[in-house]
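Before the break, one more example. Copy the sequence into your notebook; we will annotate it together after we see the structure.
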Amino acid sequence: MFLSARKKLNVMASVGMIVLCLLLIAGCGGNNGEDAAGTSETAVPPTAAADTKETTRTIKDAYGDVEVPAAPARIVVLDIGALDNLLELGVKPVGAPSILAPGDPYPAYLKNTEGIENIGSVNEPNLEAIDALKPDLIIGNKDTHEQIHDQLALIAPTIFVESLGITWKENLLVHAEAVGKAEEGKQLLEGYQTRIAELKGKIESKPAPLEVSLFRPREDKIQIYLQETFSGLIMSDAGIKRPEAQTAEGFSKDLTEEQIADLDGDVMFWFSRSNSDFEKIEKSPLWATLKGVQAKQVHQVDWETWMSGLGIQAVNKVVDDLFNYLVEQ
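Here is what the structure looks like once it is written out:
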């Protein structure tokens, strides 16, 4: 009996030692996140992980990398192209300029401009008015606003595109990225490319190519618009043939009344801020000799879109006119 009891005690002691060893092993495995080297690997709580969400993004503009808010809420734009693009992207700026004089209405083709604070004109934005709006992002362009770039950057992160007009596609993508709408910007550009391909196909299907003239009557001269203009680029994208005098590189060329033949085309588009400037051309004895005039294919188009729009909404208005006058008539 004694030996049996002693054996029982030995067995119980052995079991106890095994249990103790298991507990010690478990304790070594759960050493508060310390590895063999003694470094801590404490897990980040879910709430702390959420707090690490980025509040800024880096955008490349005409000057280099610019850090902008991830979700800007108070945006000031300095030109109509940026205003046009942002509104189409569903983003309403708090401030924008008029085309010509401070306080002038925004272009009529733009919708949802109510409540946007006027900050002066495109050429002379009011820095005090911009500062008073407490923007968290400013969008402008180097061509027009280079001299005030540094002052603007002191007010808020400032994104500048290089230029306007023929760079409208690149500008759209920069504007979209700056306001966190990069994918939407790409979709708008793809929509344009689809429409312009359709227009090009319809124009190329015509029996003979049409030469299309583009000009602007002015008080003291006549300007023909060349390839490197906003509207000239759209016509080039559509494969529209231009008169020989309008195929040169550059923005525009000034004509005298004696050179009026350079305006001629099978179809003639003109725009001006003053209709009286066009009326002077009509009085020229050479005007009636133009084939576009004789065919009654002279059309006034909206200067706010063809000349000063510079954004995706204006682009689509120009394409509408090209469909209307070159395909559907």
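Confidence is low (pLDDT under 50) at residues 1-52. The chain has two domains: 56-186, 202-326. Try to locate both features in your own notes.
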